[in-house]
User: Fold this.
Amino acid sequence: MPASVYIHFPFCLRKCVYCDFCSVVYDEDLKKRYLGALLKEMETTPYAGSIETLYIGGGTPSLLAPSEAEALINKIEQKYTLASHAEVSLEVNPGTVDLQKVKALRSAGINRLSIGVQSMDPAELKLLGRVHDDVDSRNVLEWTGRYFDNFSVDIIYGIPGQEVSGLKESLEEVLSYSPPHVSAYELTAEEGTPLYRMLSEGRLRLPDDDDKIAMYELLSDILVKKGYLHYEISNYSRRGRQCRHNMNYWLRGEYLGFGAAAHAFVGNTRMRNTAEIPEYIRMIELNGSAVIEELPLTSADKDREEIFLGLRTETGIRADKVYGARDRIRLLAEEGLVLEKDGFVRLTEKGMLLSNRVIVEMIDAAENEAAGSG
Ligand code: SF4
Assistant:
């Protein structure tokens, strides 16, 4: 039985310039119909059982009224058993909440906020097209500290014009609010976004690779020195405050997904809902399901997933799972990119920085060996 549930809320006040997530500009009527469809989708899903983590992501789920968030949680509680110690997260855009709302979300049953601060530099936030500014973030961080003992802050690095010293200032200010968890993502220019266009036209320039490496190292240095565990490539936490919902993904646990573009993994099959919001509503109203793709995993798919998901985490992957890649592991270890210890292979800090290359090489080596011996 899936232990985790993801609910997608695909509405935002406006699109950020770098965003290629499934989200559209907020529309009250469309939102109402969407919420109706979400409740129906949850009602008609064939699964039942105990839920350990619930994550309401988006989009901007902090645009939900607390009563709407509560209705979603209640539906989960009716249909499943929400464990008493369940982690119940909601993503917050700092430009969309006030003190009363932060308090009301806690009362509605949310026990973890994931706050999209991104930067404390107002010019960087403006460039990213965020609806919030640094003052909004300071307020939300302060209010969150009053009502939530568990919360996370998202930071973006590699912003055009950003310098290592600017990132350091943003991070240090964020850390002054003692977040139990920090996620740090490199800004990527996805095709089709305004950011991609501005970069292609030469109107903006990303920091060069050396600066991006220096930024990654700075984040890691500061956070690790302050006692955070670097428990996944982009994630740091106080001990015991790892995001249990995301850990379930990386450990290949089963999960359900509700809403447009939501994914699910049940019974060795990965499933995906349509990302078109009107089509999602239509499909749910028609037959209670909006799944447009079902992908049963072969044993080769499973092996590949175990490597690329496991290597993202601090634990790494059992050495016998990548036995076929042992020569490559030795070479990568000589480069200081992986470490083999106590029967596990894991990425070093340098390996995490170059994770794309290392993971591809490990998968290739393991698969070539399997093909050769088969
Ligand atoms: S708030 Fe998040 S989901 Fe919404 S447009 Fe910005 S990046 Fe995209």
User: Anything to note?
Assistant: Residues 12, 15-16, 19, 21, 23, 58-60, 93 surround iron/sulfur cluster (CB under 6 Å). The chain has a mean pLDDT of 95.
